[in-house]
Amino acid sequence: MKYTLDDFARLIDHTNLHADATHEDMKKLCDEAKKYHFKMVAINQVQSKFCAEQLKGTDIDTGAAIAFPLGQQTIESKVFDTKDAIKNGANEIDYVINITELKAKNYYIKREMQEMVAVCHEHNIPCKVIFENCYLTKDEIKKLAEIAKEVKPDFIKTSTGFGTGGAKVEDVKLMKSVVGDDVKVKAAGGIRNSDDFLAMVRAGADRIGCSAGVKIYEALKRRMGDDHVDGIEINR
């Protein structure tokens, strides 16, 4: 498949999840998303209203992070926060699973995913499930992906970017090999240049979460200009 520069831009969730982010930082994030036509701004839940107002009238989504970055909240708390984010203008949700309960190998994670997907889909909003793969074994990643294949969130996501490691090509391939076309994969965490970006797309990622979106976009633009092409072929 041939990707144009705008196709690549529409894969990017332009991200600022820092605790000390100011309103000026949030406005800059939204302005950049509008300038480069990114798919979404990825922000902490409390920034939902501000960013939704900044992006009003555009086709750029406001993506609220729920239970971020630890995932250590009850299902009820995550559902409440999701509803609050949606009420304040969020139209995509990325939530972090409860890793403690995953490692306990009980039904909790499936129920959590079902309830989070249900509240998002009730409002016609995409739900992305953050695995935080750096804390998981390959078998746990596979098991989570199997649950997702059954429950059908819109995306499963590699990482928060705040753990001990970020996205890995091998993990994206593993996740995609389990869910196939039933669920999409989002790669996030440590993706800072165009080579890493393209590697994740080739591995099967349909969305890339990163704070280096502008840098990556400009690098892809230069690459296409140097090669005198209007797109890049991606085989996966």
Automatic annotation (TrEMBL):
Keywords: Cytoplasm, Lyase, Schiff base
GO molecular function: deoxyribose-phosphate aldolase activity
Protein name in the entry: Deoxyribose-phosphate aldolase
Pfam families per record: DeoC
Reactions the enzyme catalyzes: 2-deoxy-D-ribose 5-phosphate = D-glyceraldehyde 3-phosphate + acetaldehyde
GO BP terms: 2-deoxyribose 1-phosphate catabolic process; carbohydrate catabolic process; deoxyribonucleotide catabolic process
Pathway where it operates: Carbohydrate degradation; 2-deoxy-D-ribose 1-phosphate degradation; D-glyceraldehyde 3-phosphate and acetaldehyde from 2-deoxy-alpha-D-ribose 1-phosphate: step 2/2
Source taxonomy: Bacteria, Bacillati, Bacillota, Bacilli, Lactobacillales
Record bears the keyword Lyase: yes
UniProt similarity note: Belongs to the DeoC/FbaB aldolase family. DeoC type 1 subfamily.
InterPro entries with a match to the protein in the record: Aldolase_TIM, DeoC, DeoC/FbaB/LacD_aldolase, DeoC_typeI
SUPFAM superfamilies to which the protein is assigned, alphabetical: Aldolase
Species in which this protein is naturally found: Lactobacillus helveticus (Lactobacillus suntoryeus)
Subcellular location, record wording: Cytoplasm
Any one of the GO CC terms: cytoplasm
Function: Catalyzes a reversible aldol reaction between acetaldehyde and D-glyceraldehyde 3-phosphate to generate 2-deoxy-D-ribose 5-phosphate.
EC identifiers of the protein: 4.1.2.4
Gene label: deoC
Main localisation: cytoplasm
Active site (record annotation): 94, 157, 186
Keyword Isomerase: no
